[in-house]
Amino acid sequence: MVKFINISAIVAIISLALTGSAMAHKVNLFAYAEGGKIYTESYFPDGKFVEGGRIMVYDSQNKLLLEGVTDTQGLFSFPIPKVDDLTIVIDATMGHKNSFKLQKSDVGAGR
Amino acid sequence: MLSVAIVTAMVLAANPALAHFGTITPSDDIVTQDDNKTLNLQIKFIHPFEGHYMEMARPEKFGVMHSGKTTDLRGSLKAVKGKGADQSEEFTFWSADYQIKRPGDYTFFVEPEPYWEPAEDVFIIHYTKVCVNALGLEQGWDQPVGLETEIVPMTRPYGLWSGNLFTGQVLLKGKPVPYAEVEVEYLNASPGNSTLVAPPSDPYVTQVVKADLNGVFSYAMPKAGWWGFAALNEADRKMKQNGVDKAIEIGAVFWVNTLDMK
Fold first, then answer.
1. Residue A18: its pLDDT value, please?
2. What domains lie within chain B, and their CATH numbers?
3. CB-based contact (8 Å) between A45 and chain B?
4. Contact (CB<8Å) B138/A43
5. Do A28 and B136 touch (CB under 8 A)?
6. How far apart are CA B91 and CA B81, in angstroms?
7. b/e for A28-52, b at 16 or more Cβ within 10 A?
8. What is the rounded CA–CA span in Å between residue B92 and residue B46?
9. CB atoms A45 and B136 under 8 Å
């Protein structure tokens, strides 16, 4: 019984620590279309690059169009897959996740 | 003796030493991905607490610093007329639109034309700044622009609650100003301030704090809205008014916005 309480307390502390860390290091993604490509930049608020983050690109029907991984500068680019409202998701480790909506008009303008 | 006292009182009542403030107020100070990316900035020369406008000539300089790069925005300035609630005459102020394109901090700055203030027998130049954060990247706010005098924030100047302490450093020609005097005023016309604050007496209008030996000052902001900090120094040069050399008050002004925690 004592052992069980200890374990749940430890789990609670770890969960709190993880939540706190996610808040302090909120991940961000910024994207723009230019010259037929879409460029993404993934960063933490202090400017640190998100290295090796997973990128997923969805269309307006929430269909996954492509996936990729950010480089050492937090960058990932790809040819415009479709002129549509795109949702670009960055998934860093430890539950750091965010998304960016790139409007159809911006995608079209960058062709 | 009595008459001197009465006259003094009358002069004080008729011409209270109102604090002048250069202002830049942006339509938004934290731009997120769902927000309008076109900012409107209003540039004025006012008494912020009383809401009194003064005539403002086209600024000498208006620009923005982002990612360490400065861009001249003077061409985007448009003259607008406005006045305080109890002013009968309208005065010129300036308005500009700016398109946010990239993440990061945008420090907007204005260097106005010298303003001749006969009541104080000086020219006034307020180098005024405000910082807008965009798209989650909190980088740039602590960098000086390189103005003749400026306040460099030591508190991140956005995302502040009312009650927070704002700390800044006063620079003159890039060097800290020991014991600089800083005037602090609340912009009574802040968006979201539904009831104007009425000062119980004059000292409540302009708060005064002094910087320490390193030019660092702090002030805790008691209400939601825009707060202006003006560090005043005398320039080491003069300007002529009707052929006579006059002193120049150079102010380093910084504006921050606070919200109530609720």
1. 45
2. 18-259 (2.60.40.10)
3. yes
4. no
5. yes
6. 5
7. bbbbbbeeeebebbbbbbeeebbee
8. 11
9. yes
DSSP, collapsed to helix, strand or coil, labels residue A21 as helix
Rounded to two decimals, the pTM is 0.87
**Cβ contacts (< 8 Å) between B139 and chain A: which residues?**
46-47
By Cβ distance, the residue of A26, A30, A98 closest to B103 is A30
CB A91 within 8 A of CB A97: yes
- Is pLDDT of A5 > 80? no
- Check: CB of residue B73 under 8 Å from CB of residue B109: no
Query: Contact A30/B138, CB-based, under 8 Å?
Result: no
For chain A, the structural domain boundaries read 26-109
Count A/B contacts: CB-CB distance under 8 Å: 27
pLDDT digits (tens, 9 = 90+) for A16-68: 444 444 455 689 999 999 999 999 999 999 999 999 999 999 999 999 999 99
Chain B contact for A79, CB < 8 A? no
CA distance B139 to chain A (A): 6
**Residues of A in Cβ contact (< 8 Å) with B140:** none
**CB distance B112 to B125 below 8 Å:** yes
Architecture of the domain made up of A26-109: Sandwich (2.60)
Q: Which helix (H) or strand (E) holds A17?
A: helix A2-24
Cβ–Cβ under 8 Å, residues A90 and A25: no
3-state secondary structure of B10: helix
ipTM of the complex: 0.79
CB A54 within 8 A of CB A64: no
